[in-house]
Task: structure prediction
Amino acid sequence: MVGAEVDAIVVGAGFGGMYQLYKLRELGLKVQGFEAGTDVGGTWYWNRYPGARCDIPSLFYSYTWSEELQREWRWTEKYAAQPEILRYANHVADRFALRPLIAFETPVLSATFDEAADRWRVVTDRGDEVSARWLIMATGCLSTPRAPAIPGVESFAGETYHTGAWPHEGVDFSGKRVAVIGTGSSGIQSIPEIAAQADQVTVFQRTPNFSIPARNTPLTDKDIEAFKAMYPQYIAMIKGPGMGFGGGSAELPIPDDEAQRKRYEELWAIGGAGFLAAWGNLLTSIEVNDRAAGFVRDKIGELVSDPATAEALSPRDHPLGTKRICVDTGYYETYNRPNVTLVNLRQTPIEAIEPHAVRTCAATYEVDALVFATGFDAMTGAMLAIDIKGVGGADFREAWAEGPKAYLGLAVAGFPNLFLITGPGSPSVLSNMINSIEQHVEWISDCIAYMREKGLTRIAADPTTQEAWVDHVRQVADKTLFPRAASWYMGANIPGKPRVFMPYIGAGYRQTCNEVAAEGYRGFTLGKVHADAHAS
Ligand code: FAD
Ligand code: NAP
Result:
């Protein structure tokens, strides 16, 4: 594909990229997708570790843009497991004939803006060079797995895995001694499953996390009927101002202790991340949050037989919900198994990995396999892996050197005609991601349609408007408890990464985006390359 010209390039074939390809093709554009993996699905293609499933109920963690799709797809469980979600992604790709639009196993390496033509020139690792007016980065927020540089890790003689790049053929841990490093959502989901299979599991925990039982169940006809009955209200709700946790969270008076306890008991019995919605001020009032955190710690104490292990599993260094809340199936109970040991790295840090062991300052743990559940270079990793040059040769990595900056999380000043899907500065990872993906894809598609209709060839975020938005994103976050946690939302999991709260937690985001568009793309500069330019 050297010298090929298309109207739009979409990088990534997860739920974002697939819908974007569909929408742009519907608009009549010639589109080209590039995907590093061998197939569609993004997150659900890469994260095949045992226990992987969604933490938003599947009926909601589904596209809403096709009624036919809604009607014909039936989820089997409240929280579908990864293979089922991947089947759904594949079904979408087949149902809407998206695969022919995508070049698989083709990572995009660079993108350079040609100011004379208002076009992006994109280069892949297969040597493709393709030019397009529009470049949409559907590269994912949690798509760059990272493993810490522990001394000696390269000397390990056994098998090494990362939850975010799990082998397609699966892993059989039977008869093995397994070390799991990391206790975020991926660790918390996989540890019970690995423990049920392996001989011995040693969990190396640096920071305990709050986890709420999923109480996953098969979906019945009654559940599906109830969902269908409330679907119109659901759609009205997601298209309303409440997208993102910030929506409608007006300050409340602090409820009394008894009311709090009762509510937490109810939500614990229901299970799932809905626990965070107990009160509108759970994520802004430390008094309310402390009570909720104490409730979960009490539950951990009840679930884990050994008091010292229960205490080690009890988070005390961050408010509940300020690191992504985890949703588990039998996580805390797993520590009652005789074949599971918890190592508290706060007390006994890892010193090195040896060919057959993990060594802390206090002991050496012999293991056959190492599982890194150590997360991602979230929200910026995939974008910064690409060499992007904008107007005047502006370097994307420099533009984000102090932390990511994007107007509405959708566009970056200095990089015209490039759009981010669920970029930093949008509700993104704080929301149901499929809803946020749809909102961005639809906004971007409308914008491109508008540009073509007006014969315009360039749209660029104004630096001052972008700066004001970035400031606003920070100010809104500062009113919450989120900045108190060393979380990946803050970039704190990557040594040297700027500490900036990346997603947008304010209310009314969708409405703001709609108003920006309705006002002729307020905060953007729109133009035409030269008189004889044809709008493509
Ligand atoms: P992704 O699915 O991450 O897809 C991005 C794709 O871009 C990847 O396939 C990647 O290979 C490709 N790519 C990146 N860079 C390049 C490049 N340079 N060249 C070519 N291709 C490239 N969100 C929820 O709302 N609810 C959940 O329950 C939930 N569960 C999750 C569970 C796990 C284990 C993880 C890791 C995330 C979860 N998320 C969840 C977040 C999830 O990432 C989103 O819901 C959603 O799947 C993201 O879709 P996407 O298309 O934006 O990105
Ligand atoms: P994560 O939340 O970033 O957790 C990584 C874990 O690895 C943390 O416990 C971290 O400890 C630990 N760690 C990192 N470096 C370490 C080191 N050098 N030594 C010891 N421990 C180290 O990553 P994740 O679990 O993959 O989850 C990322 C996000 O993906 C989630 O927050 C969620 O949004 C999404 N996800 C969702 C689900 C779901 O339930 N649907 C499942 C998986 C993932 P510290 O906290 O001390 O840094």
In short: Residues 54-55, 142, 148, 163, 181-187, 189, 204, 206-207, 324, 327, 345, 373-376, 429, 488, 493 surround NAP (ligand 2) (CB under 6 Å). Confidence is low (pLDDT under 50) at residues 244-249, 531-536. The chain has two domains: 4-144+378-463+506-535, 153-372. The first strand starts at residue 2 and ends at 11.
